[in-house]
Amino acid sequence: MKPGDLVKWTFAKTSDTFNKENKFHMGILLHPEKAPQNSWSILLSDGKIVHGCKTEIEVIKESEDR
């Protein structure tokens, strides 16, 4: 994972309580966060910025190196 990657972010992916319908959002990885390890700030398609851990993030398309 690296900044600029297109991702699918699913909050509480494995939870039967918080996300029963397994809803997800598309977004772009902005930058890694210090804690918890392997977590990221993500810019969602609706303009919100969220914090997601690696278990909630699926890379759809890697950003191209320029």
Keywords:
single chain; 66 residues; mainly beta; five-stranded antiparallel β-sheet
Topology readout:
Elements: E1 6-9, E2 25-33, E3 39-44, E4 49-53, E5 57-61
Antiparallel strand pairs: 1-2, 1-5, 2-3, 3-4
Largest sheet: 5 strands, antiparallel
In spatial order, strands of the major sheet run 4-3-2-1-5
Cα gyration radius (Å): 12 Å
Q: How much β-strand is present in the residues?
A: 35-45%
Descriptive notes:
The chain is mainly beta and 66 residues long. 0% of the residues lie in helices and 44% in strands. The chain has a five-stranded antiparallel beta sheet with strand order 4-3-2-1-5, with no helix packed on it.
In short:
This protein has strands at 6-9, 25-33, 39-44, 49-53, 57-61. It has 66 residues and is an all-beta fold.
